[in-house]
Amino acid sequence: MKLLIKTGDINKLDVDALIVFAWENDLSVFSKFNTAMATYLKEAGTHEEFEGKEGQFLTTSSKGMISAYKLIITGLGKKDNFDIYEIYKNIALSLRKAKEFKPVKVALIPSEYWLEKYPVRKIYKIMVEASYLANYRFSKYKSEASLMKLRTVEELIMYTHPGRITGAELGMKEGLVVSEAVCFSRDLINEPACVTTPEYLSKVALSESKNSKNNTKVNIIEFDEIKKLGMGAFLGVARGSEEPPKFIRLQYKPKNSKKKIVLIGKGITFDTGGLSLKPVEYMETMKLDMAGAACVLAIFNALNQLSVSVEVVGLIAACENMPSGRALKPGDILTAMNGKTIEVLNTDAEGRLTIADAISFAVQKEKPDEIIDIATLTGACRVALGEEIAGIWGNDTKMVDLLVESGKNSGEKVWKMPLEKEYKELIKSSIADVRNIQIGRFGGAISAALFLAEFVSDISWAHLDIAGPAYAEKDTSLSEKGGVGFGVRLLLQYLTTK
């Protein structure tokens, strides 16, 4: 999608669809247009009972009174409790509404209230991201006939006043970098598991190191070296598959960096559950179990372009979780890289095993200031928080609070969860240091976080469980059905503020 910023008379914006926004019981936006168009909009609004309520749209032909062919007025509701997430959502919904008319060129005029409340740069960054993500389509495997039916906008014009051009252009550039990273993540998640193998992820990582824009070094650690490192938990999960495991390390190190942050992405490229086999209906979308890895890989495409000033290391323990004669069995004991022994009582609680070794590697080899892991870890978190909100745990309150705030500022919802020490009893094993699944049915997401905490040592650490928002079961405002790319915006927001 081509992006442009324009100034001048909005009545002369020559586009297929022009989008503006109205607040509840405040239709003063009509006065932005010439007298004839404004009068017509008032009449149409009265006829359609349009009051600017949230979710209302007033859609009409301009009837030649302005240059735009279609005019879409989006109701925003009341200004109370309006936040950044609502801006993302309403821009995305507006673009989806416009796409019903198969437009090629669309223009957006932001609400003046947004520009009063937030910096110009921020609003235009959001405009780009919301529009870009709402316009995304994964069409790689569509036939020519199917492609013709897909509705995508080819050109987006963002209107601004002359005095705001600099901020708008900066926001547009930043928003484009972030949007492309999110879409890169979505593409990886949406690929079938027969394509996105551990080997494929390692090749994607290596291709990033060859891109001069990325300033990224990549090292792929193969089976023999993984074994020498003592990553028994990771290899325990991997041994059921014909696909060899890969431990992927990415490094971005700008000059004069004073802080080092490790990002760990869960990289289970397909999860059958192993011998603790999932029901068929739960297995259909399990290509998504590498969404954390996709997030980390996408972030490394953007770090240099966003001039992130801290050193960032990405770690991905990539493998499949498959049943076979060699597969991990319930009751087996594994030894992680840090020497802890793990009683495996459910082979479908495999992600925490691979992440445990990745965390141990980070602690022993990287010695970072912070560790953040992001994973589609537990169905329990999805049950607790639904399909739009990620859970976050951590041992550093300030760090966790900053990540939650980064979620608010990037339009990604995160809810702070308890790292309840009393629940550690639930992951105690009678024959090993720890068990990989809690005793009983309850507290599954918390006990999974507590399990990971066993490997962290005294380093500041946060755990993001994205099992809910990583994959959309149906179209939403910002995403079509499929991979969402959740976490990319949040973590880039966090890293750019460090």
TrEMBL record:
Mn(2+) 2 binds at K266, D271, D289, E350. The active site is at K278, R352. Belongs to the peptidase M17 family. Presumably involved in the processing and regular turnover of intracellular proteins. Catalyzes the removal of unsubstituted N-terminal amino acids from various peptides. One of its GO terms (cellular component) is cytoplasm. InterPro entries: Leucine_aapep/pepB, Macro_dom-like, Peptidase_M17_C, Peptidase_M17_leu_NH2_pept, Peptidase_M17_N. This is Probable cytosol aminopeptidase. It comes from Candidatus Gottesmanbacteria bacterium CG1_02_37_22. The keyword Metal-binding applies. One of its GO terms (molecular function) is metalloaminopeptidase activity. Residues 346-353 form the Cytosol aminopeptidase domain. Its cofactor is Mn(2+). Binds 2 manganese ions per subunit. SUPFAM superfamilies: Macro domain-like (SSF52949), Zn-dependent exopeptidases (SSF53187). CDD domains: Peptidase_M17. It catalyses: Release of an N-terminal amino acid, Xaa-|-Yaa-, in which Xaa is preferably Leu, but may be other amino acids including Pro although not Arg or Lys, and Yaa may be Pro. Amino acid amides and methyl esters are also readily hydrolyzed, but rates on arylamides are exceedingly low; Release of an N-terminal amino acid, preferentially leucine, but not glutamic or aspartic acids. Pfam families: Peptidase_M17, Peptidase_M17_N. Its EC number is 3.4.11.1, 3.4.11.10. Coiled coil: none annotated. Mn(2+) 1 binds at D271, D348, E350. PROSITE patterns: CYTOSOL_AP (PS00631). Gene3D superfamilies: Leucine Aminopeptidase, subunit E, domain 1, Zn peptidases. Transmembrane segments: none annotated. Keywords: Aminopeptidase, Cytoplasm, Hydrolase, Manganese, Metal-binding, Protease. GO terms for biological process: proteolysis. It is found in: Cytoplasm.
